Amino acid sequence: MEHLEATDEFTANYEQLKTSAGRTSNWRERLEAVEALGQWNNQQTIAILTHRLNNDAVFKVQEAAYSKLKEWGEDVQPPVRKKGDLIKGVSKILVRIKKSLPKDHTFEEFKQKLKNMRLDIYDIYEGDKGAEFDSWLESTWASLSTGRP
Fold first, then answer.
1. Cβ distance 136 to 142 under 8 Å?
2. Pick from 16, 61, 71: which is nearest to 35 by CA?
3. What are the distances in angstroms from CA 117 to CA 7, 105, 125?
4. What is the number of other CB atoms lying within 10 angstroms of the CB of residue 56?
5. CB-based burial label for 116 (10 Å; 0-12, 13-18, 19+)
6. Rounded alpha-carbon distances, angstroms, from residue 1 to 5, 8, 10, 11
7. Between vectors from CA 10 to CA 7 and to CA 12, what angle results, nearest 5°?
8. pTM score, whole prediction
9. Per-10-residue mean pLDDT for the chain, 149 residues long?
10. Residues 31, 11: Cα–Cα separation, whole Å
């Protein structure tokens, strides 16, 4: 009977967790989904965790998926932290956002516009940089050339 309850619980939560695991603009939700899916060792969860391990842009999410898959005895390779830009062309995107603001805009205005316009980029870098995110973004913002005099 206990196995049946676990199966019912899995069925009730699976679709929601699958959706959460794929939410590109919320790395925290993806991480929580990976951890929750880690309660059930079956082909469906293995497939989702393997996809997160191999395709997530945020290293913390990759690590969580790897840990669970390894614990289950799956033949997986540990994730490697990406070097350089996590998103191709991110510098051009950031320059466009900076150019769209008034010349004398503040860092906070830039940060908010990035979050509003490209939450996916904001989220991935926030997840990757952790506590260093604000200082990284501010130094990146300060170094962006807009071509204005």
1. no
2. 61
3. 41, 16, 14
4. 24
5. exposed
6. 6, 11, 14, 15
7. 110
8. 0.79
9. 51 84 90 94 94 94 96 95 86 95 95 95 92 95 77
10. 20
